């Protein structure tokens, strides 16, 4: 794992991750329960063993969720969040976080790693594609869409 990235397992590191996630959501006018609530939630998820939180110093965060696969005995990994503070972009933190997330998923034995991003997020898409991810239902297939609904 790149030395600029570390797992957020201590309360202090999870507070940093929560602050970054709160800043991410509020930067895009998305709702956030606030840094304190996020830190508590991250702590519970990490303790449960189905979530990795990675930080790039105090300026970048990634959250990877693991789930049982329907199609194999291996787990699948979902990159739920990856965000780099605008003041620290283009320094390689996003790439380091993505690589660390992929490494942790491989080490866990996952056989699939997926994520969703918007069509207009050209920088994120370029990063993901440069690391071998593809936005199709298989190489050469149709574009895949991610749908959601709040319940």
Automatic annotation (TrEMBL):
GO MF terms held by the record: acyltransferase activity, transferring groups other than amino-acyl groups
This protein's UniProt keywords: Acyltransferase, Transferase
Pfam families: Acetyltransf_1 (PF00583)
Keyword match Disulfide bond: no
Oxidoreductase found in the keyword field: no
Entry-linked SUPFAM superfamilies: Acyl-CoA N-acyltransferases (Nat)
InterPro entries: Acyl_CoA_acyltransferase, Bact_Acetyltransf, GNAT_dom
Domain named N-acetyltransferase: residues: 3-151
UniProt-listed CDD domains: NAT_SF (cd04301)
Protein's name in the database: GNAT family N-acetyltransferase
């Amino acid at each position: 794992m790149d030395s600029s990235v570390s797992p957020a397992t201590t309360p202090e590191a999870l507070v940093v991750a929560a602050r970054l996630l709160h800043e991410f959501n509020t930067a895009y006018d998305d709702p956030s329960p606030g840094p304190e609530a996020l830190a508590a939630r991250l702590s519970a998820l990490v303790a449960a063993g189905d979530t990795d939180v990675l930080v790039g110093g105090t300026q970048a965060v990634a959250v990877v969720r693991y789930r049982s696969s329907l199609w194999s005995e291996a787990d699948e990994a979902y990159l739920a969040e990856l965000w780099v503070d605008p003041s620290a972009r283009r320094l390689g933190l996003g790439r380091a976080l993505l690589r660390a997330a992929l490494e942790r998923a491989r080490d866990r034995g996952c056989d699939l790693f997926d994520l969703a991003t918007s069509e207009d997020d050209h920088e994120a898409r370029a990063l993901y594609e440069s690391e071998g991810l593809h936005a199709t239902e298989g190489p050469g297939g149709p574009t895949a869409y991610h749908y959601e609904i709040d319940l």
